[in-house]
Design goal:
- This protein is mainly beta.
- The protein has a single domain, classed as Beta-grasp domain (Ubiquitin-like (UB roll), Roll).
- A 5-stranded mixed β-sheet has the order 2-1-5-3-4, with helices on one face.
- The mean pLDDT is about 95.
């Protein structure tokens, strides 16, 4: 299945394409964790996932044609 992944801010640096919008092909049973790993993003760098304006974790299983957004951990100092 194809999923559109919007990668935000610092996470773009991990993605081989270096692009904000990525269309990935994954098996139907894939989780966001699987997609994050396919995009070479360290799991520990992803704070949360947004789909249809709702927050999910890395165990969420998107459906064919979904668009998900990945947001990094925000560090404060």
């Amino acid at each position: 299945m194809k999923i559109t992944v919007i990668v935000t801010s610092e996470l773009i640096g991990f993605v081989p394409s270096k692009q904000e919008k990525n269309i990935v092909k994954v098996p139907a049973c894939s989780t966001v964790r699987d997609i994050v790993n396919q995009l070479s993003i360290p799991e520990a760098e992803v704070s949360y996932v947004i789909h249809n304006r709702k927050m999910y974790d890395l165990n969420y299983k998107p459906q064919e044609g979904d668009t998900i957004e990945l947001y990094p951990i925000i560090y404060s100092g």
